[in-house]
């Protein structure tokens, strides 16, 4: 099996689909759950949405090791920062700490991150930190290899001022669409919703998601189809 | 000019596995910046695109920023490096203000500072992957200069980065003159930006124009340009030569 080196200067594709969306009152973070090593799925139920503080979470994509160590360092710094500050950290501070690590170690790290959270000063905020360590505050952010399939979707489906339900449904639909087309994304859809009231984690297993083009309703067995089907189900 | 060095494909000559600290290639990039001198000061234009390779990933990136009271900077290239440059410049301006001596850094000084930073990083084989345009007015004196990622720097009545050098400068050489009014300057810049929109793959149709005069800096809100496609020659270009383009 020949693997070509490809264009080394094009951005690296990353296994995963991650999304962060602001809505009127907070943010919704979403991700798939597939971790792959080459062609093998090492973990089919990973949790890519990591807690940094009680009110700030981070979606991780790219190298699992790199994104985990960045989150560990930032969690450590933010913990101390919270103690010194005497109140919850702002989302902006958390995001800028992540940027510092990403930017200053840009030659060694290969991880794209989305930071989302809620604080009393600015409300719900999403910050995207792609490869290289650029920091961009956005109304919504998408990342990971699966995101390639979502640019058109979001151009059409995104609206300002959604409700929490609308935002959650949008995120679930989007991750589900990306999973359908991206080999490096799969498993379940996880969402984390953060607002003034706190944090809510939700879990959407495959059977809870809509079916897309050319996907069929899952069955227990062929035998079930045969027994309920038309007289000539088996065609030679 | 600097195209050989700034082309990532050719930097294999200067990079090796052992180097832990050097920018090998850019990830999120901005395209051209165009600047001109006009009657009251300087006008800068840049679109709001942040490309990720061939994907037009970000469409609201502000690439024009004020620097202190007398200068305006526009950046193309790696956005994370531009954000870092802004931190350096904010520190520089802060230190200048702390002297509290009534003096303030003018555009010539800021341009020189940037040149030193860019050139020194280049000498360490760890460049800030940007081409910058620096414009400003101090004590009635207009200043417009540019610095590249390898430290090449110069001033002129009109400057540009990247594709702007190839597409905008020829237009400016033809149509720029001393003491353009604000309106004439904007129309000229928009002409350049429209051509870039047609011909630069990484251009996006959302731009800002910034103005700096003795009074201060104004950066326009984002806006889009009309484009023109209604030419008879465009309607059926391969008529009589099917398969051609």
Could you walk me through the main structural features you see in this protein, from its secondary elements to its overall organization?
The complex is a heterodimer of chains A (236) and B (245). Chain A is of the alpha+beta class and 236 residues long. Chain A contains five helices and twelve strands. In chain A, strands 10-1-2-11-12 form a five-stranded antiparallel β-sheet, with helices on one face. In chain A, helix 1 (64-85) crosses helix 2 (91-104). The longest helix of chain A has 22 residues, at 64-85. The radius of gyration of chain A is 20 Å and the shape is elongated. The model of chain A is unreliable at 1-12 (pLDDT under 50). Chain B is an alpha+beta fold and 245 residues long. In chain B, the strands form two sheets. In chain B, strands 1, 4, 5, 6, 7, 8, 9 and 10 form an eight-stranded antiparallel β-sheet that branches. A five-stranded antiparallel β-sheet of chain B has the order 11-2-3-12-13, with helices on one face. In chain B, a hairpin with a 5-residue loop joins strand 9 (141-147) and strand 10. In chain B, helix 4 runs antiparallel to helix 5 (182-199). The longest helix of chain B has 20 residues, at 79-98. Chain B is globular and about 75 Å long. Chain B starts with a helix and ends in a 10-residue tail after the last helix. The A-B interface holds A 9-11, 103, 106-108, 130-136, 138, 148, 151 and B 8-9, 19-28, 50, 52-55, 57-58, 60-61, 78-80, 83-84.
What is the element layout, followed by pairings?
The complex is a heterodimer of chains A (236) and B (245).
Chain A: E1 18-23, E2 26-31, E3 35-37, E4 40-43, E5 49-53, E6 56-62, H1 64-85, H2 91-104, E7 111-119, E8 123-129, E9 136-138, E10 140-143, H3 151-157, H4 164-181, E11 189-195, E12 198-204, H5 222-228
Antiparallel strand pairs in A: 1-2, 1-10, 2-11, 3-4, 5-6, 6-7, 7-8, 8-9, 11-12
Helix pairs in contact in A: 1-2
Chain B: H1 3-6, E1 28-30, E2 33-38, E3 41-47, E4 50-52, E5 55-58, E6 64-67, E7 71-78, H2 79-98, H3 107-123, E8 130-138, E9 141-147, E10 153-155, E11 158-160, H4 163-175, H5 182-199, E12 207-213, E13 216-219, H6 232-235
Antiparallel strand pairs in B: 1-4, 1-7, 2-3, 2-11, 3-12, 4-5, 6-7, 7-8, 8-9, 9-10, 12-13
């Amino acid at each position: 099996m020949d693997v070509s080196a490809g264009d080394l200067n094009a951005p690296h594709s990353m296994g995963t689909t991650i999304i962060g969306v602001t809505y009127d009152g907070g943010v919704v973070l979403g991700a798939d759950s597939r971790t792959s090593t080459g062609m093998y799925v090492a973990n089919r139920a990973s949790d890519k949405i990591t807690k940094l503080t009680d009110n700030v979470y981070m979606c991780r994509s790219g190298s699992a090791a790199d994104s985990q160590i960045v989150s560990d360092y930032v969690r450590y710094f933010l913990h101390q920062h919270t103690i010194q500050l005497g109140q919850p950290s702002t989302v902006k501070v958390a995001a800028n700490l992540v940027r510092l690590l990403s930017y200053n170690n840009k030659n060694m790290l290969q991880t794209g991150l989305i930071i989302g959270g809620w604080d009393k000063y600015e409300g719900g905020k999403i910050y995207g930190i792609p490869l290289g360590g650029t920091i961009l505050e956005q109304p919504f952010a998408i990342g990971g290899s699966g995101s390639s399939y979502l640019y058109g979707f979001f151009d059409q489906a995104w609206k300002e001022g959604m409700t929490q339900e609308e935002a959650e449904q949008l995120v679930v639909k989007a991750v589900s669409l990306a999973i359908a087309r991206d080999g490096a994304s799969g498993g379940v859809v996880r969402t984390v919703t953060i607002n003034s009231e706190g944090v809510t984690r939700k879990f959407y297993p495959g059977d809870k998601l809509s079916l897309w083009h050319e996907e069929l309703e899952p069955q227990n067995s062929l035998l079930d189809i045969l027994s309920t089907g038309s007289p000539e189900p088996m065609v030679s | 000019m600097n195209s050989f060095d700034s082309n990532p494909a050719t930097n294999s000559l200067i990079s090796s596995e052992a180097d832990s600290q050097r920018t090998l290639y850019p990830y999120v990039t901005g395209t051209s910046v165009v600047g001109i001198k006009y009657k009251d000061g300087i006008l800068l234009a840049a679109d709001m695109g942040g490309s990720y390779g061939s994907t037009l990933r970000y469409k609201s990136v502000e690439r024009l920023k004020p620097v202190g009271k007398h200068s305006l900077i526009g950046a193309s290239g790696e956005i994370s490096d531009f954000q870092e440059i802004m931190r350096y410049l904010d520190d520089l301006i802060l230190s200048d203000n702390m002297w509290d001596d009534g003096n303030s850094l003018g555009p010539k000084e800021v341009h020189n500072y940037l040149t030193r930073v860019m050139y020194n990083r280049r000498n360490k084989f760890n460049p800030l992957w940007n081409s910058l345009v620096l414009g400003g007015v101090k004590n009635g004196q207009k200043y417009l200069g540019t610095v590249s990622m390898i430290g090449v720097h110069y001033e002129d009545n009109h400057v540009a980065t990247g594709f702007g050098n190839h597409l905008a400068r020829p237009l400016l050489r033809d149509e720029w003159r001393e003491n353009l009014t604000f309106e004439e300057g904007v129309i000229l810049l928009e002409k350049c930006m429209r051509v870039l929109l047609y011909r630069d793959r990484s251009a996006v149709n959302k731009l800002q124009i910034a103005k700096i005069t003795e009074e201060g800096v104004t950066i326009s809100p984002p806006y889009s340009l009309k484009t023109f496609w209604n030419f008879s020659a465009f309607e059926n270009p391969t008529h009589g030569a099917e398969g051609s383009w």
